[in-house]
Amino acid sequence: MIAPNVLKKIREIVASDHYHDSLEHRIAYSYDGTPLISQLPDAVVLPRSVEDVSALLKFANEERFGVVPRGSGSGLSGGSIPGENTIVLVFTGWNRILEIDRANMTMWVEPGVITSQVHKAAEESGLFYPPDPGSMNICTLGGNVAENAGGLRGLKYGVTKNYVMGMEVVLPTGDVPFSGGKSMKDVAGYSLKDWLIGSEGTLGVFTRILLKLVPPPQEARTLAAYYNSVGDAAETVSAIIAAHVVPATLEFLDNTTIRCVEEYANLGLPVTAGAMLLIEVDGRKEEVAEDSIQVREIAESHKAKQVLVSKTVLEADRLKAARRSAFAALARLRPTTILEDVTVPRSEVAVMVESIRRSAAKHGLTIGTFGHAGDGNLHPTCLIDERDTDEVSRAENAFEEIFREAIRLGGTITGEHGVGLAKKKFLPLQVGNAGIEMMRKIKESLDPNDVLNPGKIISTKPRCEGILPRTRDQIQRFEGAYI
Fold first, then answer.
1. Domains and CATH numbers, the chain
2. Disulfide check for 232: which of 202, 218, 227, 338 has CB 3.0–4.6 Å away?
């Protein structure tokens, strides 16, 4: 626990009404969207200014306590879960859009702005912000940048890092540099912002973010293709890309997910289909018309048993609802939902989906798989009851097999959720000891006292980081992740 005199000083830095250490507040910020792990912070702090954040980090270095920055807490890798001797910095109140510059097509935002609000503000200005993570109605821009969030439109438009032009950031030492700007070309020195994007809150706290906007597409058209087999759907994905058609969205749902979505949303999906592809093409009107015809022909030539093409925005929204509701539909089945992500080369999607199916059958689990087939990013979603310790253990074993198979196929243990706590023990399998050591040196150079989001991604010291799974059995199984 942080000493009472230290907590008193923290309260003085931010003012009493921005400091909370009641049990209710501590419980509310003891977990995020990741199941099975949680830990009470010593205090919850709502900084009022950049100066507050800087002063708190300088004080953390003096007194050696941890600081965990947090937005909405929608993360799925344990990235915002506190450890021992830590406070949580909450940025949901930093929710202003500071500037929209139409001439330069940029937008300045604070880190607590909800992603869908950025979409709306950009569209009202006649512009377009493409990244659209599944949690866009609740997640914040600061979290998106920290995790380098993706989304359904990632195949054509890329991920968050492709739209961050600059940032104001507070480093772990309390220093406040600025990186980037509105210039389209800038190679002055190291690209510091690219070190910080995707660093999961371990290298800096974002206080202002400069986003790139783009012109909106003139038109979009949505298609849904249904298949008897996952293999046929995967071959369709490869054929579409080989034909030099780059859809804005190219999503996949397996049969388990299709059945759950239909029961949940009653969209008229064929529940006997082995797989579904949701495809959206956008751009100039002529281009959309040509691409939608070509995509339909490719799907039909690769054994699609049915292809639907939207004729109105309402029809398109109805088709896209199948993908948007996948997580909610699956989550209804059991008390605990473990939403994971792995990414493999597109050519290996069918192999990866089959491997997930085998692991589920081997361990007696229900796993529905959906995701971004166009870029090989899959979301195996395991449905369990965390009160059943045997079922939890089987789920952990299944996911270890899934992560190892993704690496074997030339893929990665995470395409967009991040490493955090949940996957840190698997990271050496992918990057090797040399990669881990390089990350450790970067962390130690910027955060010599390990005060900012300690214990995430890698450990700088061979010690337990104090993050406690919820049962003693889980502690024994998880302890290898924290050293």
1. 97-212 (3.30.465.10), 219-327 (3.30.70.3450)
2. 227
